[in-house]
Design a protein that fits this description.
Blueprint: H1 8-19, H2 22-25, H3 28-33, H4 40-66, H5 71-114, H6 118-133, H7 137-165, H8 186-212, H9 215-241, H10 244-247, H11 253-261, H12 263-292, H13 299-316, H14 321-353
Helix pairs in contact: 1-7, 1-8, 1-9, 4-8, 4-9, 4-14, 5-6, 5-8, 5-12, 5-13, 5-14, 6-12, 6-13, 7-9, 7-11, 7-12, 8-12, 8-14, 11-12, 12-13
């Protein structure tokens, strides 16, 4: 292994951390995309686990082969100039949208858990995220990979306890969950879930593959990362179904579940959730900035883009967290399906390169 390469653990942790944000760990994504389909939602989560592994590997492997500085190199290679440009616009838009959603999610957390104004949570998340991204790609990878083990342990632990105390009851109607007209069945839901998460993660995974420099680290990092995401999602799904009547209308359902265990656990999980929101916010802002400007060669310009983008996202976050998950995520998922098709086709192209 190249001594400057990134370990399998860091690859897996960065992959998980890029995707595990406000929507995942609050339970809002699993609620909107899977719990609404009842038992069939479990099949959807198994499918997404497999797809996370496959597409994570494709993106990072391409990033390594193309020595990618941003998602643009991977997209242009996969989709060509015309389709690649369209996908690039979708990705760049969603990176900003995801940053906005993460800032909104932190506000919802602070308001529901601590009774403070959501503006306080929004502002703190915006500032910490911007400061981290200003350190560059190494700072982003280190900060995300450091936080992720605590995130997964907390999600799995609280979900497991909740499942043991209040077992999932699949006989309870999932129709009490407010549906989005954009998602009609569990198969489509799984594809859209993978699609928008790929749109979000490719901005970090492309450059991560280039930084990793080691095919084994990419391969096993994709497997570990995909399994971590899948198992975490399934545990949240089962925990939600043990409390579906109580949590169906909440912005942050997993906070309620943690509170059932004990008030102290609820506070601890709130802090963990804020850390999870932070990891995705950092990945989104980094990816957006890296697409606009070369962060290594134009540091002063990049600094201003980070600051201006964060300020705009802060104001846009006032639209509300659950609304962003319900409407923006599926819409971006539809646009991202083209990206998934292009990435599958790129497997053939990349074999010709090797």
């Amino acid at each position: 292994m190249n001594k400057n390469s990134i370990s399998t653990f860091k690859v897996a942790a960065t992959y998980i951390g890029t995707i595990v944000g406000a929507g995942f760990a609050t339970g809002q994504e699993v609620l909107q995309f899977f719990a609404r389909f009842g038992f069939n939602g479990l099949y959807g989560l198994i499918l997404t686990t497999i797809l996370f592994i496959v597409f994570g590997y494709i993106i990072m492997n391409l990033g390594m082969q193309l020595n990618a500085n941003s998602h643009l190199e991977v997209i242009r290679f996969s989709g060509g100039k015309i389709i690649g440009t369209i996908i690039d616009i979708i990705i760049t838009f969603f990176l900003f949208g995801a940053l906005t959603a993460m800032i909104a999610g932190s506000g919802a957390l602070v308001e529901e858990q601590f009774g403070l104004s959501n503006i306080i949570g929004n502002l703190l998340m915006a500032i910490i995220t911007a400061l981290t991204v200003l350190t560059g790609i190494s700072g982003v990878i280190n900060s995300i990979s450091f936080v992720v083990p605590f995130l997964l342990i907390s999600v799995l632990g609280i979900s497991a306890y909740s499942i043991a105390v209040t077992p999932p009851d699949m006989s309870v109607s999932s129709t009490i969950i407010e549906n989005s007209d954009l998602i009609s069945n569990w198969v489509l839901s799984s594809i859209l879930y993978i699609s928008y998460n790929t749109v979000l993660s490719i901005a970090v995974l492309g450059p991560l593959g280039a930084q990793a420099k080691d095919k084994k680290a990419i391969k096993y990092g994709s497997i570990l990362g995909g399994l971590g995401l899948g198992i975490g999602s399934i545990m949240i799904y089962l925990a939600l179904f043990g409390n579906i009547t109580e949590i169906s209308k909440l912005e942050v359902p997993m906070i309620y579940i943690a509170g059932v265990i004990s008030p102290i656990i609820q506070i601890i999980y709130s802090i963990v959730l804020i850390a999870e929101v932070y990891t995705t916010a950092v990945g989104s802002l980094f990816g957006f900035t890296a697409r606009i400007v070369n962060m290594q060669e134009q540091k002063n310009k990049a600094r201003w883009i980070v600051i201006i983008t964060t300020v705009i996202a802060f104001f846009a976050s006032q639209f509300g967290f659950s609304n962003l998950v319900k409407y923006m995520y599926p819409l971006v998922g539809y646009g991202g399906i083209v990206l998934l098709i292009c990435l599958i086709y790129s497997l053939y192209q990349s074999k010709k390169m090797s």
